[in-house]
Amino acid sequence: MASKSEAERREPANEQAIANLYASMRSELNQIYSKITELEMEVSEHSLVMNAIQPLDPSRKCYRMIGGVLVERTIKEVLPAVQRNKEGIEEVIGRLNEALERKKKDIAEFEAKYKIRIKKSDNDVQDSNKKEGNAQGVLVGPAGATET
Q1: Structural domains in the chain?
Q2: Helix, strand or coil for residue 64?
């Protein structure tokens, strides 16, 4: 009986189940995208900190936030730790990019298997029509300009 439930998970029963599974796959894809973006921002912040403190005297005091606690250290102690954190985050970003590619491949296979096509919503269609319809415009010169 356990094998039957596994088979049901692999093969959705109806169109609604397929749509729900597809939506959850797209949601996971979006979560991966947002996590990558968040981590890339952290890498950027780490780089800014490293660039700011590198030229300073290594024995100079600096403060570092560790688990919500502000700790006094020297630049000599903090700089390698920030570098290690940055490298660790970059490694995680690499793994997330691999997971992202796998998820994209899975979604593409799912779309091909169930012949899924994304329809534009009515709002998208209306917006694109508005953009096309508003292509005309009026060109007005600066105030006080006269035509001769």
Answers
A1: 11-115 (1.10.287.370)
A2: strand
CA–CA separation, 36 vs 62, rounded Å?
29
**Contact of 22 with 35, CB cutoff 8 Å:** no
The number of residues in the chain equals 148
Instruction: Return d(Cα 55, Cα 138) in angstroms, integer.
Output: 55
Please write the tens of the pLDDT for every residue from 56-80. 999 999 999 999 999 999 999 999 9
What is the tens place of the pLDDT at every residue in 91-146?
999 999 999 999 999 999 999 998 888 887 766 555 555 555 544 445 454 655 55
pLDDT tens, position by position, 12-33: 778 889 889 999 999 999 999 9
- Separation CA 92–CA 100 (nearest Å): 12
Contact 75, 60 (CB under 8 A): yes
Alpha-carbon gap, residue 3 to 13, rounded angstroms: 15
Q: Is there a contact between 77 and 24 (Cβ–Cβ < 8 Å)? A: no
